[in-house]
Amino acid sequence: MSNVTVIGSQWGDEGKGKIVDWLSSRADVVVRFQGGHNAGHTLVIEGKVYKLHLLPSGIVRPGKISVIGNGVVVDPWALLQEIDNVREQGVEISPKTLKLAENATIILPCHSAVDGAFEAARGKGQIGTTKRGIGPAYEDKVARRGIRVCDLADKDILKEKLGRLVLHHNALLKGLGAEELDPDVIYSDLMNIAPSILEYADVVWKTLDEAQSAGKKILFEGAQGMMLDVDHGTYPFVTSSNICAAQAATGAGISPKMIGHVLGITKAYTTRVGAGPFPTEQQNEIGDKLGERGHEFGTTTGRKRRCGWFDAALVRQSIKTGGIDGIALTKLDVLDGFEEIKICTGYELNGKQIDHMPASQQAQAELKPVYESFQGWIESTEGARSWAELPAGAIKYVKRVEELIGAPVTLLSTSPERDDTILMHDPFSAV
Ligand code: GDP
Ligand code: IMO
Ligand code: MG
Question: Which of 79, 176, 377, 402 is the most buried (most CB within 10 A)?
């Protein structure tokens, strides 16, 4: 039996939350390893909806351990609020079941302020960030200015580090014409919540090492998607962390050998929130129909998601750069009733055919998708729980997706509900 690592293979919102929740019945520990509360993972369990941002999607299952790894940037106020919200929905959360890496970097109000101010200053060149302070917090981490969970236990170090950090950000805010922040206010606000956060602080690498030695199964839950990866995505229209499976090792403090089977969560069409290239985008009635049928509004910001056809060239690339072994194909039901369905198999650039997304921003913007066309199916796949229930047209589509991306479909999802899921191969016994 191996561990499983789940990552998104497109631009996020592929249905990672639903699949992680479903898979977590087979796991003992669920671990987030990058990103922050820019993520929005939706679970639907017998009609009850849970929207998670920082908490791992295994949190709703009693008896499971949920871990927030060192690779995550944690807004402590957002975390406490989310714990309260999820508790109100009847989920038990305690320091026994939730572990927060003591070496995780903290997001402060100056990070979201700078995130917003830079976005405003970019004008037409906006990235369309979630304005949650994700980018500025990762910048501070790499610049060795960051404040970490463990610093909350040391008043003097915290005060000193915070003074320097806010000085840095105030210079930026001043330059951008935004309001400066008072370090003393941030300090006292942090001291107020420090005990509630420190309750969950843990030596996460050790907890995971012990779990592995005891034969427990670990499920790593990625956020965002490979095309938002800071190295392999559509830079600069990306997030500020690595999304690839390899990040599970550095972002949790485990051996790369513990990553196990890598499951790429893949929507049966494509969506993107925020700015940046999107070769198969349909700014027409097709995109509107996909958006309406798929309820494509952001879980975190409520923004309308851009929609388009499935891009097999892009997913094929994510499989290689992300280290994906097999995919979970989600939202197949959204394609029900389309007369014609298209799949992008590659691109045309300056009159030449290419089979991958080039790195250059200019080239990415100029790509023309090359499509293969399919006859759609009129039957419903919504709620299907076995391969046998799928219409022939849908089966043909899934088979062609597998051929074009060069990886097997391990799981299929046919509605937001937890159990409307078809298992083809158990990823926990795949390696
Ligand atoms: P994540 O960020 O990857 O976890 O995805 P989100 O939760 O942001 O967005 C996926 C949306 O699609 C959520 O509203 C899910 O409830 C929903 N969803 C997941 N799988 C399916 C599916 O197979 N069919 C349909 N119709 N909706 C799905
Ligand atoms: P989940 O985990 C979709 C996008 C933002 C923006 C870019 C940078 O739910 O799939 P950031 O705030 O991270 O600096 O924004 O990345 N983005 C997401 N898009 N799903 C997400 O997470 C995202 N997290 C960030 O919209 O374009
Ligand atoms: Mg999401």
Answer: 79
